[in-house]
Amino acid sequence: MVEQQSLFGDGTLDGTKERDQVPSDTQQHDAAAERAAELRHLLDYHAYRYYMLDAPEITDAVFDKLLVELQQIEAAYPDLVTPDSYTQRVGGYVSEQFAPVTHMARMYSMDDAMNLEELDEWLQRTEDALGAGQATYTCELKIDGLGVALTYRDGAFVRAATRGDGTTGEDVSLNVRTIRDVPMHLSASALAHMGADREKPIEVRGEVYMPKGSFVRLNEEADAEGRDPFANPRNAAAGSLRQKDPKVTARRDLATFLYAVADTTPLHVDSQHDFLAWLRDAGFSVNPNVARCNTPAEVHAFCADALAHRGDLDYDIDGVVVKVDRFDQQDELGFTARAPRWAIAFKFPPEEKTTVLREIRIQVGRTGVLTPVAEFDPVTVAGSTIARATLHNEDEVHRKDVREGDTIIVHKAGDVIPEVVGPVLEKRPEGAEPWRMPATCPACGAPVVHEDGEVAYRCVSIDCPAQLKERLLHWVSRGCMDVDGVGEELVDKMIEAGLLHDVADFYSLTVDQIAALDTGRTYLKDDKRRGVRAGDPIPVGTTIATKVVDELTKSKAQPLGRVLFALGIRHVGKSVGELIAQRFLTVDALVTANEEDIAAIDGIGPKIAESVKQFLSVPENLAVLDRLRAAGLSLEEDLSGAAERAAAETGVAADLAEAQPLAGLTFVLTGTLVNRTRDEAGAALKALGAKVTGSVSKKTSYVVAGPKAGSKLTKAESLGVPVLDEEALEHILATGRVE
User: Fold this and answer.
1) CB 571 within 8 A of CB 577
2) Where are the alpha helices (DSSP H) in 53-115?
3) How many CA atoms lie within 13 A of 682 on its CB side?
4) What is d(CA 562, CA 570) in angstroms, rounded to the nearest whole number?
5) Per CATH, is 643-735 categorized as 3.60.15.10?
6) β-strand pairing of 691-693 with 146-153
7) Domain 352-427 grouped into CATH 2.40.50.140
8) Angle, nearest 10°, between helix axes 678-687 and 726-735?
9) Pairing between β-strand 369-381 and β-strand 352-364 as defined by DSSP bridges
10) Which residues pair with residue 347 across a beta bridge?
């Protein structure tokens, strides 16, 4: 039987603390309003990643937790409910890649029951509304795929659309035509059942999915071709259905299960059970694992059986959908703003297995963060074999109390991400010691730093090989030293050839060294003039190598603020680098400054100051700075002609840049701007003397808000900070005046 357990544990799943409901005084109301705005922004962002990009950053369980928290806040403070809140709309997005399609009726989302207790609460509410013993239920497997609506007229296929935002979807008709189990014409018997209504359009709905076997083959092909694999079959199905070329979709082996309709009237059926029978007769693919249940106990039994046999299926499911069977009772119960009251999705807990933890190995990330990773005996979970899982940080290792040699419980969070649940204490071997973070970086041996108030341990050595590639790419990027022509492929070749060990090595490269690098491509035919044969490697060549060396030479003139940003010091972005450079003017002055001097800069503070001093306390980092100076970088801030340079870079008038008319004003930019990027707009404001920050506070002078502005706009309105549109911004940049 399914355990009555919550999918949410104590603590946090999304990096934020849980909020307890509190009395509705002004202070608590303001805090709730701020958190609700933050949650709306997070839900919109992650829904966009999931529905639009098919590239989620968090698990379904974490997303559901955020949604539940927002629902709780809005229940406690009804005045905080907004029309654009995720609780008031169907999830999903509409891409501009495909033509829009308006659905015949809204495609709703489904409320979730995360455990049996929540399922029983829904069953009880339904029984109370309809009368004890009056409801029967249809239980169906919850297919983990992409929602789709298929329209037919007079029995012939017309079009197919994704669910989109519930009202408008994307026209994917050409791609759906390639799915073998989608009928282009309905059966004669199904049309006969419709009688005189056979000419009316009908819109049936269901799920496009990718069978597990097809998913494995697709990822094997991706691996062989050097492409990134899909994370799971759902993402693979969504990505395949949104292909611009239907031939690609046809090769992906998609399939469907249909289970709903926009309007039941033309079909002359009275229940979900009878409707599913009509779908089968019409020629649609209908999941065979369906049951009509007369009691809550039978619903429980169906859920338990589905959970026990989910691994036997050739497709992914993540729960069971329970629906009131009779359509007249569905009409009586109606809908909320985003979901039907007559249906609920019982979500499965993650599948769990036991295995032996062999080692906790340290992985050094591109920003220097040391992450403990559990490596254990391979075990099959949710359809794939896993042998490692991140433990995130030292605090998490201690909280779970996992030790090398332990028998551990593992699962896939959201059926996607491997996760260690915890140890089986009764199987712990004698002598198993608590794990500790190493004092030195395993990649380079430099001391590890741990900032107060943070869980992360970091290696801040600039020549750490584990961070090398990302540091090098950051150095040459447009916002830093702006070295055109040096990208990831060329940096990879330079590292392979042993030419780069830190950023200072860029400035010792010669044209001959770069020209001789192998591009990884080969000549297709003999060329006697060049003295090459088919199959010989193609080198970078003198032309490109000369351009690269010229670009590197030009980058030596970049101001100190950019150099500080390019060094990759934690918390030091472009704006912070400029502020520090304007205060200390030389890197030598910065090296000798103490934390208090740095923290005293307006807009810096103790956290950034500590990070800067940590970076400058590492001997290897100071050695790199010395080598950069020896290579010809001045490492000083040149204030002469600053106004002219700012004007040239941003397009503001030179006399305005000289006058600094916006000095003392603080701006925050949010949303999408049409005429400039936000970076460009920020640079133009700074050229006129303004301060540009990333967060809204009572000290903010103005917020510039473009379309799709999120929580920053909400906070500005709650604090009474003036909000400007892009037209007002352009007026300020042209005149230097805020009117």
Assistant:
1) no
2) 60-76
3) 15
4) 14
5) no
6) unpaired
7) yes
8) 30
9) antiparallel
10) 319
Cβ–Cβ under 8 Å, residues 692 and 682? yes
Fold of 26-88: Helix Hairpins (1.10.287)
3-state secondary structure 175-233: HHCCCCCCCCECCHHHHHHHHHHHHCCEEEEEEEECCHHHHHHHHHHHHHCCCCCCCCH
Considering the segment(s) 100-347 as one domain, its CATH architecture is 2-Layer Sandwich (3.30)
CA 6 to chain centre: 24
| Annotation marks residue 142 as catalytic | yes
Vertex 350: Cα angle to 347 and 351 (nearest 5): 125
Give all strands of the β-sheet with 723-724 in edge-to-edge order: 691-693, 666-670, 702-705, 723-724
Contact 97, 242 (CB under 8 A): yes
The four Cα atoms 626, 446, 463, 454 give a dihedral, to 10 degrees, of: -100
Task: Return d(Cα 441, Cα 307) in angstroms, integer.
Answer: 44
Mean pLDDT by 10 residues, the chain (739 residues): 29 36 64 84 72 62 80 84 67 60 90 92 95 94 94 93 89 91 92 90 96 85 67 84 86 94 94 96 95 95 92 89 96 90 91 91 84 91 81 90 94 73 92 93 88 80 81 88 88 90 93 88 71 76 92 93 90 85 90 90 84 90 93 80 56 72 89 82 85 84 86 86 91 86
* Amino acid code (one letter) for 636: E
Q: Which residue, 108, 548, 504, 569, is CA-closest to 340?
A: 108
First to last CA, the chain: 68
Residues in Cβ contact with 291 at an 8 Å cutoff, skipping those fewer than 6 apart: 138, 139, 298, 302
**3-state class of 273 per DSSP?**
helix
Question: Nearest-CA neighbor of 347 among 119, 70, 126?
Answer: 119
Under CATH, what is the fold of the domain 465-631?
Answer: DNA polymerase; domain 1 (1.10.150)
Nearest by Cα to 66 from 108, 122, 12:
12
SS3 state of residue 280? helix
Domain boundaries, the chain: 26-88, 100-347, 352-427, 465-631, 643-735
**Residue 225 CB contacts under 8 Å (≥ 6 apart), including other chains:** none
Residue that is written with structure tokens 């709306």 in the block: 40
Q: How far is CA 601 from CA 248, 584, 669, in A?
A: 56, 10, 22
The 10 Å Cβ neighbour count of residue 433 is: 8
Beta bridge partner(s), residue 457: 370, 450
Q: Is 84 exposed, middle or buried (0-12, 13-18, 19+ CB in 10 A)?
A: exposed
From the candidates 17, 65, 142, 554, give the one annotated as an active-site residue. 142
DSSP letter string, 429-452: PTTPPPP---SB-TTT-PBEEE-T
